[in-house]
Amino acid sequence: MNIPPSHAGTVKHLVDRRPEMSGEDLAANLAPPPQFEAASFDSYRPDGEYPSQQAAVDYLRTFSAGQTPKKAKFFSRKPKPDALKPGVYLDGGFGVGKTHLLAALWHAEPGTRKYFGTFIEYTALVGALGYVGTVSLLTGSSLICIDEFELDDPGDTMMMTRLLTELAATGTRLAATSNTPPNALGEGRFAAQDFLREIHSLSSTFETLRIDGTDYRRRAIEGNCVTVTDGEIDQAIQRATASGTTMTDDNFRTLIEHLAIVHPSRFIRLLDGVDAIAIRNTTELDSQASALRLVAFIDRVYDAQIPIVASGIPLDTVFSDDMLSGGFRKKYLRAMSRMISLSTAA
């Protein structure tokens, strides 16, 4: 197991942690995760088989410079000479680099008042500071980036619509990617029109960029998550401890139950100081609520690039056939791809 020796060698349990985050803590964390701390337009590697990827890079470079982009033909049959819209929405399947491009846009923004976070993090900020307090904090920022815009909760969706509408009216530019759940549009496609319909007051604010392509993780990784025995986990923990690294050790079911009492916005704090994660006795999930919490947790583990070693069934097989054929199919497929990558890294 390739684990960076960054912490004193100890064995910890994620279920023992009860992280708390104030509104100030949440605001301080509104920046790209470590995985994307060096993301740039130059480091994005567009797939030549999908011209929309390079076209998105070209548009975002121009958007970042505050100029009026000349759109490629596939964005619109009739090029629009009007002024640059204050918002851009990246629509595409998982693994095509939307978050990388969103982070690259954030890094390219010269202003110091700029924020980057997931939809869940922004709604948690409103919960902590109140709506008025959040508006006060974010007003005057030059750029707001929202990753994984959710349509699962109509109340949160419309609250974010109101917030972004107010910010756009004050001159703040907006950028978003979406994590829409409908499965009716076919595998690998996100519902751009659903996004625009739900937040109708912002539809004229956003330029929608379609990014086609295949999951880049799947280009190099096939099959299922690597699975090991409990004895091999014990050996991995011994090696981690001897090398001065921190590896957590938890039972899968107990961890899933613990995630139910920790708000998803605090999942990142569960991972403070963790170099590697061990999960024992992985089994298929029987609750969609539990499955969605696991997805949110894996997103944060992937952002932090923490390898996972697990026993039981392969981690990417924990979602039932009913889940994979339902409305949250896209989320589960993204999590499966990320878990394969993280278990391979271990």
TrEMBL record:
Pfam families referenced in this protein's UniProt entry, alphabetically: AFG1_ATPase (PF03969)
Region (Disordered): 1-29
Presence of the UniProt keyword Metal-binding in the record: no
InterPro entries in the record: ATPase_AFG1-like (IPR005654), P-loop_NTPase (IPR027417)
Keywords: ATP-binding, Cell cycle, Cell division, Nucleotide-binding
Keyword check for Nucleotide-binding: yes
Annotated GO biological process: cell division
Designated name of the protein: Cell division protein ZapE
Native organism taxonomy: Bacteria, Bacillati, Actinomycetota, Actinomycetes, Micrococcales
